[in-house]
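Closing statement on the zinc ion sub-project.
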Amino acid sequence: MRVSSACAAAMLLASGGWLAASAQVHAQIRIQDHVVAGADAAMRGFQESDFPRVHRLAENLYVAEDLAGPIDGNTAFTTNAMFVVTSDGVVVLDAFKDVASTTKLVNIIKGLTTQPIRYVVIGADHPDHIAGNQAFITAFPNVVFITHPNARINDATRARVGLYVADNYTLTLGGVNMEIKFLGRAHTASDLVVYLPQSKILWASETFFNGLYPSPGGSRSAYPIEWLQVLHKLDKLGATLILPNHGFIDSPKVLMAVWEQWIALFESLISQGTALHNRGTALDAAAYSINIGRYQYWYRAANNLHTMLLRIYAELDGTAGPYVVTARTPAVAMSGAALPPAVNRP
Ligand SMILES: [Zn+2]
């Protein structure tokens, strides 16, 4: 979908997104009281040409949805990217699967603001979120990436990393505070989330999917038992809106209801998986012994259940392994280091 500055605003209106009206997020978000419809874009009646599309959460906060795979395939769910527009530049939280789709994201942002993209936070290091990062570099050669020291990123991106966050770092730009946090291994060994305390919005990155069954990723890098511990920590932050990296950006009411279901899903899966493991049930048999209840209706449950169990078994067996730090990964995380000076200007 080609996005120009002229059509970006119209797209906002047409997308069913939330329109801003005042400075307070709570007042700005128009609640849409629809039921959870799952993550399958085809089931919701979308076409490939409907993406990417943008939701405005507040005056300066947006989420863009892209389609992960072909509409007629079994990966027709959305991949999401958040961006924060400030008076001193734009911060992008996660990105899309390739240069073409990430270029569309860049053009959406250019259509909404003259501010440059200064920082990109890599909360999820799987290819469906970073393989297009060259688009940021092409458009804004001095863009600075922020990531976790364990993140698996290519050399071009690594050369532009200005900050590794191993625990906490608060980035303040144009008066907007963004608390970048690593709360433990979850979907990967390097998940970063971003909490905006002024609006109580949490970008949960790949620790949260809406209506899409949890996955350990194609590289099976997840740690489901630790992931649940991370979810409990996120739950205590006090966010009033928690945003998923995959699955539709539904209304806050729906997303917060799904968040509760998401935690319950993990608790059920892990308790049943642990019981089966402790009884000596073979992995293949265990996948047929789980009662996944209402979560059987979540998109890709049949695809992802087995590999989630595989990783639960690995954690219980002590074979999930520490993340293998590559030679290029700095030995000392530079958490808390000063950010480099801003050099991008429109
Ligand atoms: Zn992903």
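The first helix runs from residue 5 to 14. With this model delivered, the sub-project is considered complete and its resources will be redirected to Aim 3.
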